[in-house]
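Quick one before lunch.
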Amino acid sequence: MRVIICKDRETATALVAQEILIEMTQKPDMLLGLATGSTPLGVYKKLVQAHREGTVNFSRLRTCNLDEYVGLSADHPQSYRHFMRQNLFDPLGLPPENSLFPPTEGPGLEAQCETFEDKLQEMGGIDIQLLGVGSNGHIGFNEPTSSLVSRTRLKTLTEKTLADNARFYAQNEKQPDLASTMGIGTILSARCIIVQAFGAHKAKAVHAAIEGPVMSLWPVSSLQMHPKVVFYMDESAAELLNMRAYYRQVRENEEDIQKRGSL
Ligand code: F6R
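Model of the fructose -6-phosphate complex:
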């Protein structure tokens, strides 16, 4: 696990975008796992900027999203399909057939979740999975007590998650409380996982993720079981980490070796 504490969100965002762009130049049809919410927005802006500057060709990029609300149509402003079209797919000019979402409509949702898993496999698996983390430690919509080996399925959202996201809904609007989400096992199958966390309200989850025991009460702690995971955070999200000084020292050493060209 690599832990990278950045001076601010902007610095972290630039580093994450750079990691994705490097992977894309090596594998233009990479399968990029995406999250929604406020955390990944800076990275999406950087990718769109690279597209506009013509430095990278995104035409073969394939994407899959972590989760989606059950009961919202694709054009509902709060649906994650709408969010992704607005913030990434349309600005990059990605054809709709390049993007996969967990199922939320039509009959046989459970069977459709299995088909979604099969599709991920057929596409060769996720190369990089981008994650944010809920203040209660959820990843995707794997709420506390989710099985650490779960696959894509339907999940009921907790009161905490509903309260965190209530700001996106009008007062009299029905907020969906059911979602389909990649499971923790599905996420752990990605070849590389990049987690971003910004702000003091994420500090408890970040501490549980990196320095706590692995337990389903903090789903994000399951990432300790993955061989290639990188956490990028700002100073406030890192404020409860006991080994902050060590993570900084590792990073400095890494930068030093990189400068000498021998890493
Ligand atoms: C959304 C998702 C969620 C968010 C998490 C953090 O696709 O997977 O797990 O990453 O709720 O949300 P923000 O980034 O809005 O703080």
